[in-house]
Specification:
Blueprint: H1 2-32, E1 37-53, E2 56-71, H2 92-120, E3 136-137, H3 142-145, E4 153-157, E5 160-161, H4 165-173, E6 180-186, E7 189-195, E8 198-200, E9 205-207, E10 210-211, E11 217-221, H5 226-230, E12 237-241, E13 244-245, H6 249-259, E14 264-270, E15 273-279, E16 282-284, E17 323-325, E18 328-331
Antiparallel strand pairs: 1-2, 3-10, 4-5, 4-6, 6-7, 8-9, 11-18, 12-13, 12-14, 14-15, 16-17
Helix pairs in contact: 1-2
């Protein structure tokens, strides 16, 4: 419930800021061109509070569902005068600039925010920029049927030479049920193969069943669930399960599907210190479980030892099946 109210408040704050920027565009253009602004309002209805400065009443109204800038003489039904500060007494190009100033401010806001985020702090999984060296192949997947193995490097895919994992995932996701010609390097030799990605998720994006060496990092924990009770903490990097390395989150999903509710030993790296925890996942039969979903490389990740896993899991499938639940969600650890 607290999360619901937090979401409502967040939406309100974001919409309010966007409305403020939009209306400020109209206001600034009107002032610059000599149009008198009577009201600058956030919300509609009764005035709650505000202040007056010069000719303008700056106000917050009762219904926070929008905002407006009221200019003198903007209503064609009002009695016209010769006052040069009235909106309709200005030339058409003035009125046009005032009208588009609001949307223009929203566009500038979007460009400015994205530019700032990318310049200051833009996180992506590190593996997406690395050469496409396969860390793990899912059993019975298109990659497995093509004979690909862990350690193979994809040196060409659909005409792209020496692709990164980001390029490989993009090609695969857009090629469901379509053959992809690839060149694979294994040891000192190279050979040609063809894979046909299978459609997964409700959007039917392609999946070849090969995976990069990703970091399995605990993103957040559910209280009173096995992971939290065992002592695992947010930010822990899970490096092995029952003594076997975990190259990707998909590997963990596969193994948890096999172990079901049997206790598993997780080897964790916590700030450079190696630790081990024994976790016993809960078995659930929730038909609406989000079964380890993801829709692309590093996106929509909601799976680790302790979320909801279906018995027959492809990334993005929602299978009505018994699944393990230990109570955490995972994030990718490394960023560029």
């Amino acid at each position: 419930m607290a999360g619901f109210f937090a979401a409502i408040i967040s939406v309100g704050v974001i919409l309010g800021f966007m409305i403020l920027i939009h209306e400020f565009g109209h206001y600034a253009a009107a002032k610059l061109l000599g149009v008198r602004v009577e009201q600058f309002a956030i919300g509609f209805g009764k005035r709650l509070f505000g202040f007056r400065r010069g000719e303008t009443d700056y106000r917050i109204n009762a219904l926070p569902l929008g905002g407006y800038v009221k200019m003198s003489g903007e209503n064609p039904m009002d009695t016209r005068t010769d006052d040069p500060a009235e909106f309709l007494n200005h030339p058409r190009w003035h009125r046009f600039l005032i009208a588009i100033a609001g949307p223009a401010m929203n566009i500038l806001l979007a460009v400015g925010l994205l530019t700032g985020v990318y310049m200051v702090h833009y996180e992506i999984p590190v593996f997406l920029d690395k050469p496409a060296v396969i860390s793990w192949v899912k059993a019975d997947s298109p990659a497995a049927k093509a004979g690909l193995e862990s350690g193979d490097r994809i040196t060409r895919i659909d005409g792209v030479q020496d692709p990164t994992w980001e390029q490989v995932y993009q090609k695969v996701m857009l090629s469901a049920n379509q053959p992809l010609d690839i060149t694979v390097q294994r040891g000192g030799s190279s050979f040609e193969k063809q894979v046909v990605p299978v459609p997964v998720t409700v959007n039917e994006v392609g999946s070849a069943g090969w995976y990069a060496n990703e970091s399995v990092v605990v993103g957040n924990l559910e209280k009173n669930m096995p992971a939290a009770k065992s002592g695992i903490q947010e930010g822990d990097k899970v490096i092995a399960m029952d003594g076997k390395a975990l190259p990707s989150i998909d590997t963990m999903i596969e193994r948890l599907q096999e172990t079901k509710d049997k206790p598993v030993t997780l080897s964790v790296d916590r700030s450079g210190k190696q630790m081990e925890f024994t976790v016993q996942p809960h078995l659930r039969t929730d038909r609406n479980c989000p079964a380890g979903r993801r829709s692309g490389p590093g996106k929509g990740l909601d799976s680790a030892a302790g979320t909801d896993f279906g018995d027959q899991l492809e990334p993005g499938n929602f299978q009505p099946a018994t699944h393990s639940d230990s109570g955490w969600r995972s994030d990718h650890a490394a960023v560029r």
